[in-house]
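Side project, low priority. Logging it here so it doesn't get lost.
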Amino acid sequence: MYCSIKSVIFLTCLGTSFARPHQDFANDAGGRTVPYKNIKLMQIIQLPAFDPVALQLGPLAIRWYSLAYIAGILSAMFFINYQNKKQQFMSQKAQDDWLMWAVLSIIIGGRLGYVLFYNIGYFLSNPLEIFAIWQGGMSFHGGLLGSIIGLFWFCRVHGVKFLKIADIIAVIAPLGIFFGRMANFINLELYGRPTNGDFGMIFPSDPLGVPRYPSQLFEGVFEGLVPCLVLLLLMKFTKLQQKEGIFSGLFLIMYAIARIIIENFREPDAQIGFLFGSVTMGQLLSVPLILLGLTVIFWHRKLQH
């Protein structure tokens, strides 16, 4: 329990200077200027300039984005502890140690993922900036990969069945994604492409000041809340939990499909744009998740038979 408390304190302190994933200041989906007069002004919401700092205690600034990380990780910790009381799949020591493993895996993986996938040229020229996480720059796909590697290592050290705990984390992890996307919205970052429809939001951080899709809200719902609700219902009303790997595979597939679709509404990263045609980096990185999810489901099903 001491390790868990120490981990929470560590994450909270880190969050005081932990900024945000990255800021997008592109023109439109293809890097072109969009004439404001060509966009319908119906049901347009002008967003206020939200303060990214949730709480200021003297020199200590606690940011919304750090709170999202803390809420997501603590939700997973409580859910794992609850399931462990019912199923007894790991020791008390392993349960106490998990939080520190998770924090480090997510942060290291998320940062390195952003460096490698989204801005490798800049960081090759400025290698020391890799460690400046307070300036922003995190990748979900990198954080996921870091979490998988960290969890596998954790299971080897503590003698825990990898797919057993991975399935449990997969059920609650989408809630953390939801928290993260809500923090993106409050930070006025990672907003959507300009819309010519009857609904849009004007983000104060957008240099064009044009109505855009609130893609952060789309992602929060369809990458976060919907998968979480579906997996919780399947856990409660079916016997799929007895088949290890099913929930992990379903989470990867549902997230990837939602991300690929919603990327069509989200502004591509300014420093990358479209990779080819209308394909974005987020879409490209999500395709392997579908293949991995299917592999986990059918490979483990084959072993059980």
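Brief comment: The beta strands are 44-46, 53-57, 60-63, 200-202.
Revisit when time allows.
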